[in-house]
Specification:
Oligomer: single chain
Number of strands: 3
Radius of gyration: 31 Å
Order of helices and strands: HHEEEH
Largest sheet: 3 strands, antiparallel
Structural class: alpha+beta
Distance between the termini: 61 Å
Strand content: 15-25%
Amino acid sequence: MSAELSAERLSELWVMVGDSALAPWRTQALSPGEVIELLDKIKAQAEAVLDWQAAARGYQSRLEHREAAIRRVRDVHQPIDAMMFVGKAQKMKQVCTGCGQDDGNWNIHPCPTIQALDEGRPGGSK
């Protein structure tokens, strides 16, 4: 690979960085100032891409932490079967392992916490 860029390739690079004044039909060699300007534009675009990638990694990390926190909350609020006594009748109900009431009763599953998490989920209740 040659260390020098052809005038055609430099013109293609100009078009890539958005300078339509130096389109591919330009055949004369670029001046040193034009080459420096072109390289500055390429560098600026590369820096913008790197900034965007860093921001995307930050958003991805925050999303992963939030998803992990939601999994932990769901783990605490798992359903278990419980015998409910209604008058003389008994019936099985699912109650939340993480929610209890001050009077010693359990919240029926899905509890308010799980309902709130499911509201924001695709296919969840509204």
